[in-house]
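Can't paste images in this forum, so I'm doing it all in text. The chain is below; anyone willing to post the predicted structure tokens underneath?
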Amino acid sequence: MLAGIQQIDEVEWEVPVGYVPGMRVPGRFFLSDDLAETLEPDAVHQLANVACLPGIERYSLAMPDIHSGYGFPIGGVAAFDAESGVISPGGVGYDINCGVRLIATPLRADDITQPRALIEELFRTVPTGVGAESSLRLSHHDLAAMMTEGVRWAVEAGYGVENDISHCEESGRLDAADTAPVSKKAFQRGMPQAGTLGSGNHFLEIQEVDAVFDPETAEAFGLSPGQICFMVHCGSRGLGHQVCTDHLRVLESAHKRYGISIPDRQLACAPLSSPEGEAYFGAMAAAANYAWVNRQVITHQVRQVLQRMFGIAYEEMPLVYDVAHNVAKMEEHSSERGRRRFCVHRKGATRAFGPGLPEVPAAYRSVGQPVIIPGSMGSHSYVLHGTATAMERTFGSTCHGAGRVMSRTKAKKATPGSEVRKHLLEQGIVVRATSDAAIAEEAPEAYKESDKVVDVVRRAGLSLPVVRLRPLGVIKG
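Text version of the structure:
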């Protein structure tokens, strides 16, 4: 472990005030001894830098999938006081509301006799890859409504059922959405991309529930051994990227006007109450709503394929849940000054609210929010549930995935995509992508082991395993 870092318990570590000049609070991160070798010094430095921002509450936090990112480390969590704090695009990232959802089906593993045929049909149906365009033909008015209303827009347009709305984090809509600060260029980029998977680490995966750790909670989530599910991982596409780009330009100079000193220009920020801060927050929320619609339309496309191929009724394929892992939201949490409102930034981190909270769907309130943790291509994914411990220690947050340990460039040089595909097929996993390069850069070896990451949050009590999912087929952007 790096010099100066103090171990708090078996999986929690503290970066003390003074690790970098200007820290207002300590940093805390969660990591096991066997994952310690993956810890990047740059990521720890970024964690400490975040602790320098005004209005930060208690700690700058990072989950066990921590690795270096833009400004904030990926895996980072920070809560800023609603009155004295700031908002920073670096704490959200370029892919606003990149997130993941799980769709349950009545299919069993034995029903998937031709996984390649199913993958090919899904690949033909769901637009995939850089610049992929949707079959939706949207007007400017449609796109504005989509960004304002979120998932409800999609359901009312025929791309889902009413129950899908309540089974999304925030019911698939941030109220703060404002299309006025969304640029014309962002509109242009978003117009053709609603309902597309995109590229990079985004995926659509066929999975089998191969282990159940908590039968009672699994039953509440509608999951059982041998069941086939579909996982969707994507975000706000070019629209969200453009929103981030546009507002970073503004905030890179705005912090000086408000007398805010930042240790890294990538931590550009503005007070939440400032015109610049409010403009970014409104545009970011609009992009987040777009991302929820994007995943909803893909869900609709998956259901249509399964209807055609297996004769399953649309209503028999419920959405288990949809979680965001790149977003900033206003939430109420406990502090030394009592219950207060904070702008919680989660960048590569997942909300993990515990039992009994009104933000958790009524169907799951007794057990806590579903937490969906995707693995890397070829490794297990998990469904966990949120806990009261997470509410106390991490503002209701947990990890978001496996976390990279190898850059995309390095991964492409390490193993050809054809070899990765062959190796996965030997494990019974069919992979389809736009190119071999797309497969190579997302090889399982480029990521931490999801089993180990999930074990850390389990030991820390931030979220507890419910089921494990084994991949059978993967579509990569």
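The CA atoms of residues 353 and 391 lie 6 Å apart. The chain has a mean pLDDT of 96.
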